[in-house]
Amino acid sequence: MKRILSVFVATLLSVFSVNAQKLENSTLWKIEGNGLEKPSYLFGTIHMTCDATIENDVKKALDETTQIVLELDMDDPTMQTKMMSGIYLPKGENIRDYITEEEYKTIDSLLTNHLGMPLKLMENMKPFFLSTSLYPKLLDCPMQSFELELMRIAKEQKEDIKGLETMEEQLEVFDNIPLKDQYADLIRMAEDNLEYDKTNFAKMLKVYKDENINEMLAMMDDENNTTVAEHQDVLLDQRNENWISKISEFAKEQPTLFGVGAGHLAGEKGVINLLRKAGFTVTAVLE
């Protein structure tokens, strides 16, 4: 369960971006140069999907590398405890401090219908947790995750699993976004009973299958989501920038496969461009 929850957090963090420079349609990129003895690879994932089958080119990259680094070390035994400590509103506060009675009833209906749990039991939880708890309901199939699949392979190959961020750092991202904006998105989800989000996510799955990382950026810049439109610097840009030195360190230690949400790859402030600016040669694996 702790790994599923972390996937939901990562999902929410990965569905934000800005449209920028055009790159080849590929979710797998080779990292070379800048002092690397052997190449590493950057794999753009989608955290929640119907089919997390690892393609042959990614399998080959896994064979050529000796460790896997995800956005978060999902094998950390303390992860669930850290997550649970960060999902609650400040002491003494609850959702009624931020929304109207009518909005409360709408959200209560959504959670009761989809999770079988009334809002009364979750009144003191932060809105991001309520939203991510609903994410599996956007799929019309049993949920699969590329992160969980990569972890399975790493264990089979007896390789280390590490993270670019800590759980505290991921939770801090949401603490830097006003609660009123997060509640606005939750209310919108409730008002149409997830219909918009289901349609949008189905389109995202199609775009991901086509490996069109540029189109993912274009569709993610969605004004219907207040959190997306107003806080992309916190959700995406700053995190990408923070990852570059860590990617460099990991890659120089040993050949590494990095798995991050595909929404982080393209764009002027995307990981690919930032790695190139840092002196690495980053090329699409087109097979």
* Structural class designation: alpha/beta
Q: Give the proportion of residues in helices.
A: 40-55%
Mean pLDDT, to the nearest integer, reads 90
Unreliably modeled segments: 14-20
Which descriptor suits the 3D outline? Answer: globular
Summary, kept brief:
The chain is built from 13 helices and six strands. It is of the alpha/beta class and 287 residues long. The protein has one domain.
Describe this structure in words.
This protein has 287 residues and is α/β, with parallel strands linked by helices. The protein has one domain (2-284). It contains 13 helices and 6 strands. It has helices at 2-14, 56-64, 79-84, 101-115, 127-133, 146-156, 167-175, 179-191, 195-209, 213-220, 226-230, 232-253, 271-277, and strands spanning 28-32, 40-45, 67-72, 160-165, 256-261, 281-284. Strands 4-3-5-2-1-6 form a 6-stranded mixed β-sheet, with helices on both faces.
Task: List descriptors.
287 residues, alpha/beta, six-stranded mixed β-sheet, 13 helices, globular
Blueprint (SSEs and pairs):
Layout: H1 2-14, E1 28-32, E2 40-45, H2 56-64, E3 67-72, H3 79-84, H4 101-115, H5 127-133, H6 146-156, E4 160-165, H7 167-175, H8 179-191, H9 195-209, H10 213-220, H11 226-230, H12 232-253, E5 256-261, H13 271-277, E6 281-284
Parallel strand pairs: 2-5, 3-4, 3-5
Antiparallel strand pairs: 1-2, 1-6
